Amino acid sequence: MAHEESKARALARRAGTAARPWRGDDHVLEVEAAVEAGLSRSAVELDLYTHGFSAGMTIEDPFDGAIVARGRTVLKEPELRRSLRPALQYLGVGMDAVELRVHDGNFELRVAKQTAESSTPALESGKDALKVFVGFGLLGLLAYQVIMPAVGGIIWGIALLLGGWLLRQGMASGRMMLAGRIAIGLGMLAQEEKIILPPVDSPTEELPAP
Question: What's the mean pLDDT in 180-205?
Answer without folding.
Answer: 80
